[in-house]
């Protein structure tokens, strides 16, 4: 009739007071729903990052090559260190062996000819070592290769002379050094000859073994060092080699 009665089933077009007046919860929801997004295509920075295309030539093999080069540099540093160690060891042993070969002079016998040859070869190897300038930017591998070759020759000749010296083949013009030295000590210093000969024989055997092992290891280390130096030193050279 005259009043404003609401018919059942028909929703009122007028919003509730709290929404119409911008009240608390409803206004916030409506404002957020009606507000346009600032950037419809914006994504969080982490989600918006797309995987970049891998540059050409970097298919993963570069890492393997770099690992190979790094390992090679590590081996090269170790070989360079031991190459120098065995070189100085051989110098010390060369001096000791040269002094040991002076024993025949105690009885007026000449300096052994084969010992002179060994000494000349060892001195030549030392010269080639120094002029090759190993471990520097001016390193010369050909001269270093000659040093390694001469070291191997001295090692082989040392082994041959020791076998003939201690064996039954008589090619030396004097007695064995312990016998000569023990006779000299017994005659001049009243030292027991048997004890002196046994002691000097043990010293001689130890010295011979040290010289042979040092020369052998020096030649092998030098050979491996030269092979590593000739190997590719960069990723590009490694790829070309393969």
UniProtKB/TrEMBL annotation:
Keyword Endoplasmic reticulum set for record: yes
Entry's transmembrane regions: 85-103, 115-132, 144-165, 199-222
Any Pfam family the entry gives: Jagunal
Matches recorded under InterPro entries: Jagunal
Family label: Belongs to the jagunal family.
PANTHER family: PROTEIN JAGUNAL HOMOLOG 1
Protein name, entry field: Uncharacterized protein
Annotated source species: Ostreobium quekettii
């Amino acid at each position: 009739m005259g009043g404003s009665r609401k018919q059942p089933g028909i929703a009122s077009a007028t919003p509730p007071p709290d929404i119409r007046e911008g009240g608390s919860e409803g206004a916030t929801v409506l404002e957020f729903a009606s507000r346009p997004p600032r950037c419809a295509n914006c994504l969080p920075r982490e989600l918006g990052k797309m995987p970049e295309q891998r540059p050409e030539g970097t298919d993963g093999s570069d890492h393997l090559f770099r690992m190979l080069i790094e390992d090679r540099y590590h081996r090269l540093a170790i070989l360079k260190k031991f190459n120098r160690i065995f070189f100085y060891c051989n110098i010390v042993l060369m001096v000791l062996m040269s002094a040991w070969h002076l024993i025949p002079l105690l009885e007026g016998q000449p300096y052994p000819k084969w010992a002179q040859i060994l000494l000349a070869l060892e001195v030549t190897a030392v010269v080639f070592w120094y002029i090759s300038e190993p471990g520097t930017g001016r390193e010369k591998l050909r001269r270093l290769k000659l040093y390694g070759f001469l070291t191997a020759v001295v090692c082989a000749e040392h082994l041959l002379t020791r076998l003939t010296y201690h064996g039954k083949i008589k090619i030396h013009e004097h007695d064995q050094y312990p016998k000569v030295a023990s006779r000299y000590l017994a005659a001049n210093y009243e030292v027991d000859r048997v004890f002196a000969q046994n002691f000097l024989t043990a010293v001689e055997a130890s010295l011979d073994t040290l010289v042979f092992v040092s020369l052998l290891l020096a030649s092998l280390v030098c050979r491996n060092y030269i092979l590593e130096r000739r190997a590719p030193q960069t990723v590009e050279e490694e790829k070309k080699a393969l």
